[in-house]
Structure formats: C-alpha cells, structure tokens
Amino acid sequence: MGGPRRRSTIPLTDQAFPADAACPPEDRLSPHDSLPLIGEAAPDFQARSTMGVVTLSDYRGRWVLLLSHPADFTPVCTSEFVAVAKQIGRFRALGCEVVALSVDSLFAHIAWSLSIEEKFGVAVDFPIVEDVSLAISRAFGMVHPKAATTATIRAAFVIDPDGIIQAIQYYPMAVGRSVGELLRLIAGLQAAQDGTCSVPADWQAGDPVLAPPPLLLDEARHRRAPAEGGDWYFTPAGAPAARGRKGRR
C-alpha cells in the first residue's frame, strides 16, 4: 500500500504516421490527469529509437536520465545534444544511461543525429525515442499546452536503479539545460541515496556533505557547537556531531 505506484507499460506501436492522425488536437493537448511525481515509479514504455527498440524497464539496475526536447533541428536542442554527447562518458561513469525523447519521427531523429555528427564532430551515442503519438510524453507530463501546441517541453527525469523517479526538472523552450548541473544532480542523488547525508547548495562530487538534522533534543544539544562551523541543525558530515549521531543507539 505504501510503496511506489506502479504503472502499466506503454506498448510499442507503429509510429510512422503523422501525429495529427494519432489523436485529435483537443485530445492531444489535454493535460494528463495523473502525472508521475518524485518517489513514484516511472511509467514504463516500449518504443522505437535511433538505437533500436527501447523498453524503459530494461534499464533496471542502472540510473537513467530521461530527457525530452521540443524538436529536432532546432538551435537550443542541438546545443544541448552536442553538450550531452560530449559528456556521455561522465554520465556512464556514474552508472547512468541517457535516453532522449521528442514527438518527432524516428527518421527525423536519425537525420538530425547524422547532421550533428557531420556539423559538430560528435556522435549522438544514446537513443532518441520517437513519440509521434504523444503516448509517452503525456504519461510523463511532457506536453504543456500553454508552452507550445505540440512540442514536448524541456524535461529531465532522473530515475534510480529501481525505476523510481528521484528528480524532475522543467525548462522553457528558450533556455537550454546545463549538462554540468545534470551531472551534479545525479552524483548528489547517489551520494544521498542511503539517507545518511544530504548535499548542500553548489555541492560537487568530493565536497563535504551534510549530516541529517537531529530528531532528539539531546542530539541537538550535542551538536550545538560543532568544531567545523554550522550549528545543531547544520552539521557538515565528518564533524564530531555527525560522527556522534552514527554512534548513537
């Protein structure tokens, strides 16, 4: 009862047809009535991509960064894909696979990938999923009718190895995402995943983390004057108070 909400798989369909033929505009633009939230299971799907059929649940055991973009062959989206492609090794070093998605057709994705490789000298070595029917986009809440008529917004979902959504980012069409921040976000989630610490603002991998806040008055008193700065509610991990918390019974 208290576990993450599971969702049925969105099946693979023949997506080689115009989006307008898949569903009428008034239905296509209606908001999804049950959008996935942080802590919930990511909606599973199976769809064609530039690297073959992708089934999201096949990535269980690995972190996944699911990126949606408004359209192929657009300037901001191209800048993002070039940036992600250049840093794909850093994502994989974190045990994270990148999966991209838009409502463009598979053939548009292939042509755009080839153009990026030719014009910018970098291979798009991660799958770009087609979603001309908008089934996946609507399940993830990637279509915001007031932002654009048919395009998916710039969304990023970080999904953990158990298939649970751990972070969601939304960006407007006119502003590109920071690849450095996406990498920082994934590393921070991994550092804090066991619940024994959290990461502060502007944290980078290797920086000090923060101990969880105390839940008992005696523990708060113990942390009142940490040797490394802060206070009872703000204790860098490794300070005496943080070590004391680990030693409590």
UniProtKB/TrEMBL annotation:
Location of this chain's protein in the cell: Cytoplasm
Subunit details: Homodecamer. Pentamer of dimers that assemble into a ring structure.
Protein family according to the UniProt entry: Belongs to the peroxiredoxin family. AhpC/Prx1 subfamily. Belongs to the peroxiredoxin family. Prx6 subfamily.
Lineage: Bacteria, Pseudomonadati, Pseudomonadota, Alphaproteobacteria, Rhodospirillales
TM stretches of this protein: none
Residues binding substrate: R154
Gene Ontology biological process terms from the UniProt entry: cell redox homeostasis; cellular response to stress; hydrogen peroxide catabolic process; response to oxidative stress
PANTHER family: THIOREDOXIN PEROXIDASE (PTHR10681), THIOREDOXIN-DEPENDENT PEROXIDE REDUCTASE, MITOCHONDRIAL (PTHR10681:SF128)
UniProt entry tagged with the keyword Ribosomal protein: no
Keyword vocabulary terms for this entry: Antioxidant, Cytoplasm, Oxidoreductase, Peroxidase, Redox-active center
Domain Thioredoxin per the UniProt entry, residue ranges: 36-191
Organism the protein comes from: Zavarzinia compransoris
Protein name, UniProt field: Peroxiredoxin
Cellular component aspect of the GO annotation: cytosol
